[in-house]
Amino acid sequence: MLRMSKLTxxxxxxxxxLASKTYQxxxxxxxxDAVQMPLPTVRKVLKFLSQGGLLKSExxxxxGYNLTRSPKLISVAEIITAMEGPIALTExxxxxxxxxxxxxxxxxxxxxxxxxxxxxxLDEVKLSDMLVSHPSDVSPIHFHPAATRHxxxxxx
Length: 156
Fold this sequence. Notes:
Layout: H1 6-20, H2 28-35, H3 39-51, E1 55-58, E2 64-67, H4 76-84, H5 108-124, E3 148-150, E4 153-155
């Protein structure tokens, strides 16, 4: 089963809340209350998102957190990457691969293609899309595969 961590899910929830109110600064306390998440968890997630370059923070009485860019320019893939590191479905598509099968694996190229497809699908979904409450209002994800099928054979 493919599943992102609970902290990553929380990161998307927090980023979506921040995207819904870009006109104001948000403290960790107000975010914790707004999304009904424990304050220590919110602080941990905000740290990952800030280190990932998705949030900026200002200290002081009128300080807080806000997005570094428009919600239309931040992808779900970027949020996942900030929280978990590069998206890698299998060991062999990871930058730090330590797979014993790698030197003689016949499916590594296909795993790379699958990983790229998943990454591009997540990259096409923007934070602004996450604000839409009715899925029918969201534009579809368009796949542009490099390879195509012709008479049942894969070309590309």
